[in-house]
Amino acid sequence: MPEIEKAEHGLEWAKSLFAEKNIPCATHLMIRGLSPGEDLVNFAKEKEVDEIIVGVKRRSKVGKLILGLRPST
Cα-atom radius of gyration of the chain, to the nearest Å? Predict the structure, then answer.
């Protein structure tokens, strides 16, 4: 499936950015038939995750403000 391959490629790219800085990083591609939010919460509970970092792309200035991100100029 092209979507899965694109997602896998994106995860590998993101992981490489962390590797360049010697920052430990684990990626997980989940295809379980749940909404992304449900999947993320369930995964965090299963793995007893303490912190989740979510990258935001293509968000309005108001959306960035709500999420605590600096709006782009």
Answer: 14
Distance of CA 46 to the CA centre of its chain: 17
The pLDDT tens digits of the residues spanning 11-61 come to 899 899 999 999 998 888 888 888 888 888 899 999 998 888 776 666 666
Per-residue tokens: 60: 């309005």
Distance CA 50, CA 48 (A): 6
SS3 state of residue 61: helix
Calpha distance 17→10 (Å, rounded): 11
Q: 3-state DSSP call for residue 7?
A: helix
Indicate the pTM of the whole model. 0.57
